[in-house]
Each structure stands twice: as C-alpha cells, then as structure tokens.
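sorry to bug you again but im stuck and you know this stuff better than me. theres a chain ive been looking at and ive put its sequence and its fold in token form underneath. id like you to explain what the token line says about the fold, in plain words if possible. anything you notice is useful, everything is just below.
___
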Amino acid sequence: MAVSSFQCPTIFSIPSFQCRSSRRRFNPTAGMPSPFTGGGRMSSMILRFPPNFVRQLSIKARRNCSNIGVAQIVAAKWSNNPDSGSPPAAAAAASSASAAASAPAAAIPPVALNGVDEEVVAAEGIREIGSVQLKDSKPSFLSSDGSLAVHAGERLGRGIVTDAITTPVVNTSAYHFKNTAELLDFKEKRSVSFEYGRYGNPTTIVLEDKISALEGAESTLVMASGMCASTVMLLALVPAGGHIVTTTDCYRKTRIFMETFLPKMGITVTVIDPADIAGLEAAVNKYQVSLFFTESPTNPFLRCVDIELVSEICHKRGTLVCIDGTFATPLNQKALAFGADLVVHSLTKYIGGHNDVLGGCICGPLKVVSEIRNLHHVLGGTLNPNAAYLIIRGMKTMHLRVQQQNSTASRMAEILEAHPKVSHVYYPGLANHPEHHIAKRQMTGFGGVVSFEIDGDIERTIKFVDSLKIPYIAPSFGGCESIVDQPAIMSYWDLAPEERLKYGIKDNLVRFSFGVEDFEDVKADEGGVMILSALLTSVGINLGLCFLFFTLYSILRKQPGNVTVYGPRLIQDGESQQTNAFNLERLLPTAGWVRRALEPTNEDILSNLGLDALVFIRVLVFSIRVFSFASVVGIFILLPVNYMGTEFEEFFDLPKKSLDSFSISNVNDGSNKLWIHFSAIYIFTAVVCYLLYYEHKYLSSKRIDHFYSSKPQPHEFTVLVSGVPVVSGNSISETVESFFREYHSSTYLSHVVVQRTDKLKALMNDAEKLYKKLTRVKSGSISRQKSMRDGFLGMFGKKVDVVDHYEKKLEKLEDDMRLKQSLLAGEEVPAAFVSFRSRHGAAIATNIQQGIDPTQWLTEPAPEPQDVHWPFFTASFVRRWISNVVVFVAFVALIILYVIPVVLVQGLANLHQKVVSQVITGYLPSLIYQLFLMIVPPIMLLLSSMQGYISHSQIEKSACIKLLVFTIWNSFFANVLSGSALYRVNVFLEPKNIPRVLAAAVPAQASFFISYVVTSGWTGLSSEIFRLVPLLWNFVMKLFGKEDDKEFEVPPTPFCQEIPSILFFGLLGTTYFFLSPLILPFLLVYFCLGYVIYRNQLLNVYAAKYETGGKFWPIVHNSTIFSLVLMHVIAIGIFGLKELPLASSLTIPLPILTVLFSIYCQRRFLANFKSYPTECLVNKDKADAREQNMSEFYAKLVVAYRDPAVSASRYARGISLEDPPLLRSNQG
C-alpha cells in the first residue's frame, strides 16, 4: 500500500536524503531535531535535485524554482546511508539545532497505534516523532504565533534545494521510481515515498507543519475544503451504529450531513444547546458516544462551548471531542490546549484569508489523525498544491489580519449594541453574551464576525444590507474584504419562516464578517455615525418647532381666557383677572414677553421670588458662562485640530462629512496634536472651578443679604425636638416645658407637642374638598342643579336641595372630626416644636447636644410651618428604617426596569402590519417613551416622601438627587455602556478598567447626544413655555361648558424636575468638551433659551410654596465636580488608547486637584447653606429688638406649628369652635 504522505525534511525526522540513483534505506530510530520542533527531526536533510536535472538547471532558474511546478524538483529519495552525507551548511544547522533540542526530544513518549494501517503509521511515525508542539517547540527567535505563522515549516531545513524565500509549488500527480528495486524497497517498507499525488505533496506538507505549529498539534491533515475535513472525520471516527452529540447552533451543511447521511449508516445524533452541560452528561451516560462535535464560536450566533469542561466530561466516558475553531482561528483559541482531541478548520476563511482558495484541515494526535488520513486517501478530497501555496501565503499575514478584524468587530459590536435600530447583538466579546465569561477564559481575541438583528422585518433588513457600500453580499467570512449576509436568505431560504425559527434564524438576522478595511470607513458605512447634513436637518426641524411654539405662545398668552394657563401667578398676585373674553386685536405675535422676562434684576428676583428662584436662575447663568468659554475654545481650537487630525482636509463638501470627522477620534494615535486637547482640559477645568467659586461667593452673599432684608420667619426661631424621654407622671408637653424652662430660661418662648393625627387625615381631606366645592357652588362660579337625590351616585333616594345637602354632610364631617380630636387628646408623640425668643437661642439649641444621653433631646432646625411633612411624626423609627430600605430597593429596581419602556417602544416600532399606519409606528413609540419619563419625577417624590423627611422641601431635594442619578445613569451611562445592566454595574466594580471602558464607549455616542440636545433640549424648553397639557385641559373645559370645581391653585415651581435636566446637559457639555466640541454651541443655545424661558415662567406661572434657603445649590456643586472628574477619567483613558501615555499620566493629578478644590469650597461656602453664622443671627436679633411689632410676631409664633388636623374647624356655617384640648401651647 502507498505511503500516506510525504514529509519534507524540515518536518520529518529523517537521517538523510539522496537523489534517486542511490539505494534507499529506512531507519525509523535515526534522526536529528528540527530547529522548529525540538523533536528528533533531521532539520539539515535537504531534498536535492536529481543529478541530471541539477546539471541542466541554470543558477537563475534555481533561484526562482519556487515557481517551477515540475515533478523532478522533488523526485528524490530517502536513505539511512550514513555515507551519503549532507550539504555542509545543512549539516552545521542540524548539529546546532540538535544540541538545542535534545532534551525535549527525549521527553516525547511513544505512541501506541491500534487499528491503523501499518504502512501509514510507519510513514507518519517518521514525521510525527518530531512534530511541532507549542509548549516546547518554539525556537528562541520565534516567540509568538505571528512569527510561527510566517516561518514555521519554511525558515530552516526546507527539503527543497532553493534559495527562494517562498515555498515552491510542486505540481505533480505521481512520483516515479528509477527501477524495480526501488519499487520493491518501497513495497517492502525499506523506504518511503509519496508514490501518488493523492497521498501527499511537499507543498502541502509545509502547510500542515505551519498549522500544527499554531495549534500545538502532533499531526495535521489538510483537505480540499472544510466540509471535506468534517465529513471525512465523522466517517472515520464514528462506527456504524454509533452515536454523536452536537449542538443546536452550527453550520447548516454539517447539520444536514449528520441528520440525513449518517442515519443511513445507523449513526444517531443527540442535539443539545451549547451551554447544556447537563444534556451532554446525560447523553454520554445513556449512549456509547463516539464523538462530541461542535463549533466554538458557533455559526451564526457565536455561542462558546466550555472546551475544558466538556472535554473532561467526555473523556471520562471515552468520548472524543472535536472543536470546529474556524470562527476563532488558531490565534484566538487553542482548543487542544484546553483538552479537545481534534480541531477542525475551514482554511478557506481566516487562515487563507483572501477569499481566493478552498481548503480544510484536521489537527490532533498522530494516532487519531492517521486513522482519518487512511480514509481520506480512499475518498480523495486532496488539497491542490497551488491552493496549499495560496494558504501558506495567506498565513504569513494572518496575525496582522486577525488583529485588525478582532479590533474592528469588537468596536463595531459595541456601537451596534447601543444603536437604536439594532435589537440584539451576538458577539462573545460583549459582556451580555451568554458565554462571555467562557470566551474571556479560553480566547485571546473574540473574532471578526458579529451577528445582529435589525429592528425591523425582512424588507427593512434587506434594505439595510443593500445600502452597505463596503461589504460584499456573499456566503463566506474571514477574508480581507468585509462580507455581509442574511442567513435567512443566504443559507435557509429553502425553508419556510416557521421552519427557520426552529433554528433561531429570524428574518432580521445579519451576519457581518469584518475585513481589514479602516474602522472609521466601516463604522460610517454601517450607519454608526451621523453626517453633518443630517444634523443640520435635525437642527432646522427643531428650530422650526421652537419658532412655532414661541409664535403660538406670544399669541395665546395675550388672550384673557388663557390667563389661568400662562399667568396663574399673576392671578394670585392680583395683577390679572380670569375671563373668557376673546380679543381679536391680540392675534399679532410679538416678542415683548422676552423683554419683560429679562427686565427684573437679580435683586428683584430675590425679593419677589425668593432665594430658591435666584439659585435656579444662577445655575443657568453659570452654565452660560462655562459653555461660552468652552464654545470659543472648542469651535475655534479643538474642532479644527480634530478635523485635520488624520491629514489635512479641505473644507469643501462639509455637509457630507461624518460627525466623527470633528471629534477626537479623527486624530491619529500618538499625534502631538493631542497635547492641545491635554492643555485644553487643564484650562477648561481651571475656568470652571473659578466660575464655580465665583457663584459660591455670590450666592453666599445673596443668601446673607436675603436673610437681613427678610421679615422674621417662624422657622428661624423654632427647633424640632425629638427623642423626648418619657417621665413617669408627666405628659410629653410637661416634660418639654420643664426641660427648656430650666436650661433655656432666657430664650425659651413656647412649644407645641406633636399628636398622632393620621386617623384624622382622611376626614380632614374630605372636609376640605367638600368645603371648597360648597363655596364654589354658593358663589355661582360653577354651574349646579337646584336639587339632587341623596342616594347612591345621586341616582337613588329622595330629592334634596344641593346646597343644603352639602352643608349637612359638612356638618357631619365636622362632628366626626371633633369627636376624634377629643379622643386623640392623650396620643402624644415624643416630639415637639420649641420656639425661642431669638434666632441665636434657637441656633444654640440646634447645634449643642441637649442631654447626657445623645439619643435623647435630639434637635434640628424646624422647617417653615407650611413646609412641615406631618405624616413623618406618625411613623415609628423602625417603620422609617424599613421604609428607607424599601425605597432604596425600589429606586434600584426602577433604574433596572427602565428597560421595559425601551422594549415596548421597540416592539411598537416593529409593527409592520398593513393596518397599522406609519403615523402610529413612527410617533407612538416616542410618545410612550416620553410619557414614561413624565411619570419618573412623581415616582421620585413618592419614594422620597417615604424616607422620613420632616419637610416637603427636604423631600423635593431628595427627589432632585434621585432624579439626577436616574438621569445620569439611564440617559448617559446606559447609552455609552453597551450590554446589560449587570455589565454596567460591573464596569464600576473594576475601577482600573473604568478609564479604558469609558474612553472607548463615550466618544462613540457623540452623534446621539448632539441630536439629544437639539431634540429633547431645545424642543423640550419650547414645550415648557407653550404648556400644551394645561392649554388643552383649559380648552376642553370650555368646549363642554364645564368648569373645574377645584379651587384655583398656582402650580409650584418644579425645581426638583428642572434642575436635574439642566445639570445633565451640563454634564454632557463637560464630558464632550474635548471629545466632540461640535456639541458645545448647541448646548449654549439650550442654556440661553432656558435662561429666558424659565425667567418668564417664574414671573408669570410658578409660585414657590416654601423656601429652602438655596439648598439646591450644593446639588449643583456636586454635579459640576462629578462632571469634571468624569471628563478627567475619560481623558486618562483616551490618551492611553491614543498611545500618548505621558499625557495620560499627567492628567491623573487633575481629578485629585478638582476634588481638593471641591473640599475647599464645601468648607468655605456650603456651610452657609445649612445654617446662618452667629454674627448674622445676633445682628438680626438686635435689629428685631428695635421693631415695634415683634410682640405680634411672637403671638403668631405660639400657634404657627399647630397640626392642621387638630386645629379648630373652619368649615361650619357661623359656628365658632374652641380649640380641642389635645393641642396645648405654652407661653413663657
């Protein structure tokens, strides 16, 4: 029988090699090590030309014989004749290599073969004794897979005499014998020869050795295609009646072969999920499984199998494990090192790498590969030597190609993950991939293929694929050229849609194989970036909407019938009256409202609107100043640097430029231009800190000025005391009075003990509503019927007069309230509002520990009387503690469940039935999303109200912080960080990776946030002034001739809702200042619009119910510092990714300096926002002492903190009720 393959001496352990004229002898134990293998291989043995051919070959031809495809080039023979010798140079190389590798050679154990053709084994044994094994076979000058891919099998000891660098292509179908004696030596196994082209070729031997070197395999067999390798392997290793286990996700042709052909041989198959370890264990225990065959990563969903685990499970039952590593390549994954027995590759893909050749291979132990080789020699499927040469050529650049493809695929996977038109991305490098943890452990790179699902049906997916300009639509992957296909069409079109779904193949699935094209080109082609013209279109549309809203507002606000919508504050202040008159003369739009909004000075705002309103306006002023400077630097310095970052680009055809052309991503890695960005970051940070310091100083002074100019307020003289100890024989009221008369005798004025009034709240609310309704009915402000029925829903019972009916119900409610008030006389809470004669006295009581036991006599500043949150006092300490835990869990859950409306929006956007109009699919998802965002602030207020705050202002401040955190996390980090919520959290659990992750993710979302500023920012402000919802409600009430029976109320100033929005836009501007300065002018416009609009709304629409004393400003301070530090962290990562490590290192001190500045400001200014200094308190007290009306103020102060639920009824008709006995006030 013929020898299975021919091995050139670089790979074989052959003692010598002579021309055909000599007798051949074979000694399987002789040999010298190859410098590549470290095994007992004869690296110096040269495959020499026959004498007659050598004499005829010119020197020039010999130097170029790699292009000569004649059989005589390698028509030579082997011999163990020691006298035959070798060329001196080769002998010297062999001698040095032998000394270097003798130890590893001795360590190779003998291989026992069973059931394999002896002739084949003999030949294979010659070759494989010195087979390449990565862990001990690398020569000293080859330390990487890339070097092995270039030089393995070729660099030293090549078996063909030629000084050509490239491997010769040996085109021959057979190898001749000089005489019958040589043929007999071959038949009697005294010598070795290829004999026939199907059994081996010197060119393919070089390819096999390269692959073995990369995979760390004893033996490699190459074939005509990847499918040929898979099918021959299955036929050779699985006996008739045997059993195979495979996975659901795999190449369809492989599945077809196993499901349709193998059953004809009685071979059965078990199909499991790639992650179903239990299913694998059950199969190998139930059946006599010959082979577990799977891909890793799989096709097309890129699932990853835990090779080490499945190998351990299978080997316990004697089952072989074969991994198809085509998607991984030997560079990204070495399955044999993790325990697999065999590895299959389609050489057509990454290894060939140029889309110009077919091939396949099997790598593994000598024994197993030899058994497969036996069948291969029978079936054929031989790899053409020209194809082998092309694959060898491709392997020399494989490490460069795969590195680029890994990088492009990884970055594009992150971009696609965040893309609103992509519903799902399949890539093992993403943290949300189900086997990401496995891929990280067993892969050094995640491959160049990304599968993803378009947000749409098959038609939309076809449109997307056809719109791509770079990739070819083709059924392959792994080449230099990018390739894209729809598996539903390319591979499964013969199946019905429901049949395709059984394999998980959806109509919107796309498989994208990234080539070696420039990343930015690929990114732009896939729609990952926005071009400038698209942004300008969006700007134009939103400017039009803003102009429309402003025009309508300027008209509608002048109509007297809309005064409740656009001037409720004016009604409250008596500057305007409600009327339904329509004035035709006021239909001309004007901009006078802008001038009136800008007229009031800061002092006017402070005196008329309060300190909180001034702080709100100063936030906008601060933002305008910051981003005015940032816009100048960004537009005139950073943007030109970015635009000309790669090379000089002329400023023509700008509308077609990608927005990335104006970002830092356009600057070359390592470019000195990045130092301009570095300097800009330092300068910008210094300017922001200076402006922040200035605002601190300004607002602190205004807070003091406001304090001096304001009239005495009850909360300035009052302290809330909790933890009052229970003294036997005394009531809480008596204990409080005794304590403060003794220890604060000179300043104590009075106290009010808090009662448990939760049982009165429902009655009080009902009475309040009924009283307001009765008042409006009697005044005629709402239409009414004269009579009604007193039964169920006013439809049953006897007829009664409406006014009389309401009055009787009100009297009954008052009687019930009076009764419950008397019953609550003894239900005191160990807390009281204690009032003092001076502010200084109250401050002393607040800031000094009152009792020896620090858990008793706890004091804190009292809020304004109308600001008290009375339900706080009815909850026990344990209940408040539990409520805080519940609120924390609910807040975290709300952040996580934020994905629900996103999924709903995506589902509606995917509706493509003909009955669903484009209006619904285009606008309803966005409407639902905005509605969800509208309910978030009330939810935050509800959560904060459950936390045990004593005032509504504290609740609003807490809700403001929650809403800011929610907005930053879900609108910023959720967009820039791809993957699941768990992945987003894990990013921050590994601090060392934060700069790198953010630096890679944040710049990719610049286009999205620029659009966000224009759409949500500009249009959102315009809708704020237009007040669409109140306008529509007012219109509906008038249309149906009904009026709201609720008492007119001025809407409260939405500080807790608007401040987080402003701060979020400030964070965007700070973060993208140096990354994408194109966003800065749009932000500046936003803040300028906000300044005008919110001044108008504060003057005409909103009215504060209570004053916090500017306590929202510390939130602004903390958000600004966080934004700066976030910018610094991203800068550290960016400079690292841009290969400018010195700039990255020099940026590290910047966040530290910023935090130190923050600490200084907190100690210098923020204390003034918590309490007033003694100097101010004493001076103000002295000024009050000179006032004549302080006695009247003290009289009001005594009853200022009575709980409304226990106060005298004010609803009865002419009935004067005495104060209930449970409310006790004491005046000293």
In short: The radius of gyration is 42 Å. Residues 1-138, 647-652, 906-926, 1208-1228 have pLDDT under 50 and may be disordered. The first helix runs from residue 51 to 56.
